[in-house]
Amino acid sequence: MSFKIVVDSCCDLTPSHMKEGPFTRVPLTLHVGESVIIDDAFFDQADLLWRMKESQTPPKTACPSPAQYMDAFDCGADDIYVVTLSALLSGSHNAAAQARMLWLEDHPRTNIHIFNSCSASAGEVLTALKIRELAGSGMDFTTVVSQVSRYINDLETLFVLEDLDNLRKNGRLTGIQSLITGALRIKLLMGATPEGEICKKGQAMSVKQALNKMAELMAADRKHRGRVLCITHCNCLERAFHLKELVLKSCQFSQVIVSEAGGVTTVYANDGGIVAAY
What we know:
By secondary structure, the chain is of the alpha/beta class. The protein has two domains: 3-28 and 63-154, 3-Layer(aba) Sandwich (Rossmann fold); 157-277, Hypothetical Protein Tm841, Chain: A,domain 3 (2-Layer Sandwich). It has eleven helices and 13 strands. The protein has helices at 15-20, 45-54, 66-73, 92-106, 122-136, 141-154, 165-169, 175-184, 207-220, 237-250, 263-269, and strands at 3-8, 23-26, 29-32, 35-38, 60-62, 79-84, 111-116, 157-160, 187-192, 198-204, 228-233, 255-260, 274-277. Strands 10-9-8-13-11-12 form a six-stranded mixed beta sheet, sandwiched between helices. Strand 9 and strand 10 form a beta hairpin. The longest helix has 15 residues, at 92-106. It is globular, with a radius of gyration of 18 Å. The two termini are 29 Å apart.
């Protein structure tokens, strides 16, 4: 049975992952001032960061339409797995679910499952790679769905950002947290609840200290052992490698992947942000 993995553009797979397949990325749209940017293979991170810095209004994102997902479904595969960012953070999951319903009306024999990653960025990467691992081994569709769903439930997502303004202004966290941390120059170590909402995990006086706390949290979590860690960075490769060095010394991950933020992650992580999932 042939299979395809469809992801939205908040899934920050590396270029080598995309070349290896079997991935198709459905882009979200970014709005910065008067500019409209498609978060596709031609996305220019430096240009987006510049536009965000110059804009007087906060950037926004728009989820793909059901039609865009249906275009991705038109691939001839027997089994189609879709990975979206948290349904509590974006309408991408709902658009994919609508597309599935419409597609099955005319193609009832296609197997399609929409995974709510309950995460974003690095968490979506790991979910997509787990699907590829299981489906690529010849596992049947129903079993893949069951095992990946359990995998998502066990995922941990952590992130450290230079500032939280874009998250706050787009309603992704409370204004009080953002305003207080900005005034006091505190760096929050954030995470995701099992349902995919943003929550506070700790705080520090600098990004470096917050990354140290992140590594300490991972090391203290016994279930990390033998897992894959994905670190996504927004224009801060040195920070990503610093975190990688910390976890290689203190943790027992089977593999550490470093990826670069795409457009959606850049909007919310902003310059200097780090997202990690395992």
